[in-house]
Amino acid sequence: IWLPVGVVLGLAIAAGLLMYIRSRSSLVGQLRYAIRRRQLQVHYQPIVDLATRRCIGAEALVRWPQARDVMVRPDVFVPLAEDNQLIQPLTDLVLDLVCKDMATLLQLRSDLYVSINLAAIDLSTDRFCAVLKRTLAACSIEPQRIAIEATERGFMHAQTAVGIIQQLRQMGHRVLIDDFGTGYSGLSYLQTFQVDVLKIDKSFIDTVGTEAATASVAPHIVEIGHSLHLKMIAEGVESEAQAAWLVAHGVQSGQGWLFGKPMPAQAFLDYLNNERQRTRHV
Ligand code: C2E
Ligand code: MG
Ligand code: MG
Ligand code: MG
What we know:
By secondary structure, the chain is of the alpha/beta class. It is built from 12 helices and 9 strands. It has helices spanning 2-25, 27-36, 74-83, 87-108, 127-138, 152-157, 161-170, 189-192, 202-205, 218-227, 240-248, 265-281; strands at residues 41-49, 55-67, 70-72, 113-117, 146-151, 175-180, 197-200, 231-234, 253-254. Strands 1-2-4-5-6-7-8-9 form an 8-stranded mixed beta barrel, surrounded by 5 helices. β1 and β2 form a beta hairpin. α4 (87-108) packs parallel to α12 (265-281). The structure holds ligand C2E and magnesium ion (3 copies). One magnesium ion (MG) binds at residues 59, 117, 149, 178.
């Protein structure tokens, strides 16, 4: 009788081991493990006032150093996280990492804000609002210092998104509409509820300041922002010509390689320090 029991037990253990190895070797398994072990990192990309070039904030962009020298792009692993119930732990981890960095960042520049990207799933329940409140209270960071980026896609997929966004604003957070103009949701939501900032998608900024600009929809996107009295941030600004066009069209803020690429917290601190020196010498 013990022999079959032993065989069954042995098989079960082998199967379990195999499943464990397989889960660890698949990309999803590795991502789950990396989140659990807090191996993700956050990089910061400056958001500047276009007229003065002064840094007013930064966007937190998640990074996954998967192996030595290999960074998996968020375009790849964020959708993977969304499809595998990993987005909530990912968002929580990013928020946590940002709050840790915030302590030093705010010592240098107390008026700075950092914006965090939310996924549609984060906008589907008020769970994130509770997490945010609790996390900020624990490290004594004011809600004004954390902005929230939501895409139009987020509103389409979550009935509750409008309520969540209103709640976030009532809590004192700025709400930024990310990739503005690329969604298929129509613009009616802008009349239904309040947001603070439109982030004009890079695809519209690419053509401004060039010959192709006359055929571009960029001026119309900017016009929408003005008529709704919303602040705008241009994404993906890479050239002086683009910056000049944006200033001429009344866009206040910009983000892009012209001002700085996404960088680790320490490099961002150096960036802010250098900026302080630059302005002191003027
Ligand atoms: P996004 O939120 O629209 O972020 C802007 C992306 O444009 C970033 O790509 C940034 O590195 C890139 N970028 C900024 N300026 C320039 C420029 O001048 N030229 C070019 N070529 N690219 C520029 P990244 O870091 O690869 O992130 C891609 C997307 O992944 C983000 O788009 C966002 O949708 C998502 N993502 C990033 N971090 C998070 C996160 O913590 N949570 C969630 N849910 N999504 C995130
Ligand atoms: Mg964003
Ligand atoms: Mg964006
Ligand atoms: Mg984008």
